[in-house]
Design a protein that fits this description.
It holds the Pfam family S1. By secondary structure, the chain is an alpha+beta fold. The protein has helices spanning 6-9, 11-17, 21-40, 80-84, 107-134, 205-215, 217-220, 250-255, 260-268, 283-290, 314-321, 326-335, 363-371, 377-381, 385-391, 396-410; strands at residues 46-50, 57-66, 77-79, 95-100, 140-148, 152-156, 162-166, 181-192, 195-201, 224-232, 236-243, 273-278, 298-302, 307-312, 338-343.
Length: 411
């Protein structure tokens, strides 16, 4: 027979989609069995043989030789008179084996077979991609940025699969252009209209955890465990770690000599501040560590309402709250307690929070003082105008005006 090598006609498709050859052969065999059923009513008496080495296809059909006039099913039987025109040696009861050529199906049927094969292999490929990435949720993947849109970025992995990085899963400081290499964690895999949709994330806590596993061998080996991670992507993160070996300092191991290990992670996360905290079951101590770098004077816990009242010296309040409130917010998420901050002050030394002057002093000016740890009236008055000019980005006229407003409060 003049062989039409359908396997090789799909070679470029197979290589691109990484479908193994046995799978292609199995699908091809099923496609042609379907064609045989349509043409002959059954494929039970047919053998479809595909050569795995060169892709040649052979189809053999077997029918039983019957006496003339006694054939009841032409698909399974053939009369003696008809078969002896082809092979005179055959007798009643013998098997008549004939080869079915692809050409005999007709051009239209062959084109339909090709289309069916393409469709089935595409379906298999989609299922394979879905299963592969479903098992990789939580793993770091890397790919090349192929297209940047307003709400998402399309990333292509090493095998040509499409990964979606939504804007909501990007660090605020992320900026990508076509051709850039990007690393992210597989966050979610779902089937959408029979197509696998792979969502990757750079903001998920799992991304930070995997980066630590890559940079800190002790975590990868299981000597140090990450108990919990909380993040404000691009701003701040807190990581609670615990060591099962008393000889290993978990915080020191994660940070590395002179910050060598954590610097790479910080760069990957666009200079996100990362606080590594030693985990403890002592809640008071845990909250104290979580609010670092602020130094706490005392803590009162209410385990029923899961609230913690934290008392600090006035100069520590802004450190505990952190820029934009990120520090206290993350400390609450890390410990599971709602944290209320209170300023310690003696009766004879009453102070007033700068926010109380918001009707007289613009908010952005108050923020400038908070940036340098000054959040009360007396903490600002304690410094000279010259010192305040040096430490803030405010004009001397503005500072003198603010000092006048604050001093009038205590006169």
């Amino acid at each position: 027979m003049e062989s039409i090598n359908l396997i090789d006609s799909f070679q470029e498709f197979k290589d691109f989609k990484n479908i193994d050859r046995p799978t292609v052969i199995s699908v091809l065999e099923e496609v042609f069995r379907s064609m045989l059923r349509k043409r002959f009513g059954t494929d039970e008496n047919c053998d479809v043989i595909v050569n795995p080495d060169n892709g040649d296809l052979e189809i053999w059909r077997t029918r039983t030789v019957m006496e003339d006039g006694f054939s009841e099913d032409d698909d399974l039987e053939i009369e003696l008179a008809e078969v002896q025109k082809i092979d005179a040696d055959l007798e009643v009861g013998d098997d008549f084996i004939e080869q079915i050529t692809l050409e005999s199906f007709g051009r239209r049927a062959i084109l339909a077979a090709r289309q069916t094969l393409v469709s089935k292999i595409l379906e298999l490929e989609k299922d394979e991609i879905f299963k592969n990435y479903k098992d990789r949720v939580g793993e770091i993947v890397s790919g090349e940025v192929y297209q940047v849109w307003k709400k998402e970025t399309l990333v292509i992995d090493d095998e040509g699969n499409e990964l979606i990085l939504p804007k909501t899963e990007q660090i605020p400081a992320d900026y990508f252009k076509k051709g850039d290499t990007v690393r992210a964690v597989v966050d979610k895999v779902e089937m959408l209209n029979s197509n696998p949709k792979i969502i990757i994330s750079r903001t998920a806590p799992a991304f930070l955890q995997r980066l630590f596993e890559l940079e800190v061998p002790e975590i990868f080996d299981g000597l140090i465990t990450i108990k919990k991670i909380v993040r404000e992507p691009g701003e701040r993160a807190k990581v609670a770690v615990e060591s099962y070996d008393d000889r290993i300092d978990p915080v020191g191991a994660c940070v590395g000599m002179k910050g060598s290990r954590i610097h790479g992670i910080v760069r990957e996360l666009r200079n996100e501040n990362i606080d590594v905290i030693n985990f403890t079951n002592n809640i008071s101590l845990y909250i104290q560590r979580a609010l670092s770098p602020a130094k706490i004077t005392s803590i009162k816990l209410d385990d029923e309402t899961m609230r913690a009242a934290v008392y600090l010296k006035p100069d520590q309040v802004s450190l505990a709250i952190g820029r934009g409130g990120h520090n206290i917010k993350l400390a609450g998420k890390l410990t599971g307690y709602e944290i209320d901050v209170y300023r310690e002050s003696s009766e004879e030394e009453e102070d007033v929070d700068l926010e109380e002057f918001s009707d007289e002093i613009d908010g952005w000016i108050i923020d400038e003082f908070k940036k340098i740890g000054l959040d009360t009236a007396k903490s600002v008055i304690a410094l000279s105008a010259a010192d305040l000019v040096k430490r803030t980005d405010l004009e001397v006229e503005t500072i003198e005006e603010v000092l006048g407003i604050l001093r009038s409060e205590f006169e």
